[in-house]
Amino acid sequence: MKAAFINSYGQFDQIKIGDIDRPEIDDHDVLIKMKAASVNPIDWKMVHGDLKALIKLKFPLVLGSDGAGVIEEVGAGVTEFNVGDEVFFRCDKANIGTFAEYFAIPANLIAKKPTNMSFEEAASIPLVGLTTYQALKEKAGMTEGSRVLIHAGAGGVGSFAIQFAKAFGAHVATTASKKRFVLLAELGADEIIDYQSQHIENELNGFDIVFNTLGDSVQEPSYKTLKKGGVLVNVLGIPEPLVVAQYTSNILVKLISHINQWRKEGLAAKYNAKYKHLLMYADGKQLREIADLIEAGKIRAIIDSTFPLAKVKEAFERSATGRAQGKIIIKISD
Predict the structure, then answer these.
(1) Which CATH number characterizes residue 51's domain?
(2) Measured between alpha carbons, how far is 48 from 42 in angstroms, rounded to an integer?
(3) Per residue in 162-175, pLDDT tens?
(4) Residue in 190, 159, 194, 161 with CA at minimum distance from that of residue 175
(5) What angle (nearest 5°) sits at the alpha carbon of residue 48, between those of residues 42 and 54?
(6) Contacts of 152 (CB under 8 A, 6+ apart)
């Protein structure tokens, strides 16, 4: 089968398009004929080797972390899905490879594709959807009426997160350049801050939650927007020590994680706030809940651009600019 893969870490020119063996399934797996996948920063960071200290992967490494397609085979122990079902999913971090014509995955990690979305639209959802769900609901405890600041509202995660938060009755502020304001208003943002000319700490206060998708550059200003006891959830940088311990036994990596957590929590305490880090995990049940919101018309896909499988390198280059509005899609088959 055709796939996009690398044989070693490096730059985007390491990406190859070629033939590899079609995967086999176990009793609790399904084999998916891939229709589309999406590009996420974690995908091109894998090419650079940015996560190699935490996640050990084997070469050749097929790229791609989420997608959508049609079930071609089901394992003997699978009862919830059937051949021909249209599904979408986020794969486990230790078993990536959706930029391929076929992908094998445990059935508990998939969900039926929203009926009102194309495969390309559905492929744009899993990683950003699960990241948002786990950050806002599990880590931050968002409820109806919560005041939430979502950084980079026009990005893949941000554009989904605004809609998700509004679906649960939150008041949403977000940041973007002025040329994105119309889109963000359409998505439901209550307040939009122009990060090029405004400072969030001067414009916002009394917020319950900050969803930080940009990292350290906005960390301290974000704390100034929170009320006492507010929560900042970060999805970039070094995970929390308990999470790191699940992936590696390397003492140095663990030590770095502990020091980082101590520093992050210390900064949060300075502002009477709480710091939490999220390393998102795959979950089919949560995806089913997200699919329900989509089918109810509360969330729509925002697509920046679409590339064929042969143009993964170009798609990564587009993503790495940081200028994409919504998600970048890899179309794999009709």
Answers:
(1) 3.90.180.10
(2) 10
(3) 999 999 999 999 99
(4) 194
(5) 65
(6) 158, 174, 175, 176, 213, 214
Same-domain check for residues 103 and 139: no
Count of domains in the chain? 2
Claim to verify: residue 55 and residue 139 sit in the same structural domain: no
Structure-token pair, residue 262: 């101590």
By the 8 A CB rule, do 266 and 274 touch? no
List pLDDT tens digits, range 61-101. 999 999 999 999 999 999 999 999 999 999 998 899 999 99
Residue 263 domain flag: yes
161 & 260 share domain: yes
Rounded CA separation 228/207 (Å): 9
Looking at residue 176, its amino acid is A
Q: Which residue range forms the structural domain that includes residue 63?
A: 2-124+301-331
Same domain as 158, residue 119 = no
- In a domain, residue 327? The reply is yes
> Do 92 and 139 reside in the same domain of the chain?
no
Claim: this prediction has a pTM higher than 0.85: yes
Q: What is the CATH number of the domain that holds 214?
A: 3.40.50.720
